Amino acid sequence: MASEAAAETAAKPRGGRLCTICNTKRAALKRPKTLEQICKDCFYAVLEDEIHRVIVDNHIFKRGERVAIGASGGKDSTVLAYVMSELNRRHDYGLDLFLLSVDEGITGYRDDSLETVKRNEIQYGIPLKVVSYKDLYGWTMDEIVKLIGLKNNCTFCGVFRRQALDRGASLLKVDKIVTGHNADDIAETVLLNILRGDIARLSRCTSIITGEDGPIPRCKPFKYTYEKEIVMYAYFKRLDYFSTECIYSPNAYRGFAREFIKDLERIRPRAILDIIKSGEDFRIATHTKMPEQGNCERCGYISSQKWCKACVLLDGLNRGLPKQGIGRTRGLDAERNKDSRETNGTQSLQSKQCGSLDF
Q1: Closest Cα partner for 216 from 117, 126, 121, 301?
Q2: Residue 84 burial (C-beta neighbours within 10 Å; 0-12, 13-18, 19+)
Q3: pTM for this one?
Q4: Would you say 226 and 186 are in contact if contact means Cβ atoms under 8 Å apart?
Q5: DSSP state, 103?
Q6: Could you give the CA distance from residue 287 to residue 37 in angstroms, rounded to a whole number?
Q7: Buried-state track 320-331, b at ≥16 Cβ within 10 A, e below 16
Q8: What is the CA angle 311-317-323, rounded to 5?
Q9: CA pair distance 253, 313, nearest whole angstrom
Q10: Average pLDDT of 226-252?
Q11: Does the pLDDT value for residue 289 go beyond 80?
Q12: What average pLDDT does the chain have?
């Protein structure tokens, strides 16, 4: 992977310089964020302390809370599980931690990564809960991609995964969900929301805690942690993680923003933090009309429309109209009338079960 190769390059400072922090050990890497040349031990200490400060300064947790760690088996969630376990023990947060994974049903990708998560469960002593698209919605991503192709498949997966995490967290009866979204991810999201003109999401995408008006709040302890540093931390700590990209994501729209962010970082390493800061400083005019949050009439999930996005997409799949709800919708009833002629010969799809939708 490109991020791993870049991290290995950053981990090889030239010459035999001493660590700029302790001035005793030889520098083992150059921090992508600050360009400091430091030793491994100082790198561990600095990174862990930064994450701890983010948690404490933003009052993310309260003693006694049950917290679900979104675990995919990738570098971000594996480092998150390891660091949360360490900080919880070291600083006595008093949290009950759980690993929560979503099985999207992607053969050759998610089944392999889940094996990594199962090993993490044993390695870190954190209980694991797995929820699947098949059980929740009656569909796997393999089946969805077979029906709609490789275009727009990430729309289905993203919408379903967000809701699946909440449903899994509800089953665990947790108070919060923590995810491994890092500084690069948040900077990408700021750019994407600007390009899309999505004011509602732009106003909240940099928040370290989101969804406080929803079923279960989500927290991002890695908000200011660079992706390269997460890779380097996992590499030096020899953590067990899954490094293969999703087989269905090469054409994802987010990929273009990611490449742009990487180009900016090469020119100016602090560009990532600057973009996040600009997102934090955005102010929406008081006269701007924002979507009003309510609840989906069908499943009860939080939504600004009569039906939540997951129910709209799922309804389209079950009725043989997979493009329903993708892009700018013109209303569910209009979409149904427009595509009613396409339902001939799709009775087998209409009879497919919706899965468990009660929230």
Answers
A1: 301
A2: buried
A3: 0.83
A4: no
A5: E
A6: 49
A7: bbbebbbeeeee
A8: 95
A9: 19
A10: 89
A11: no
A12: 85
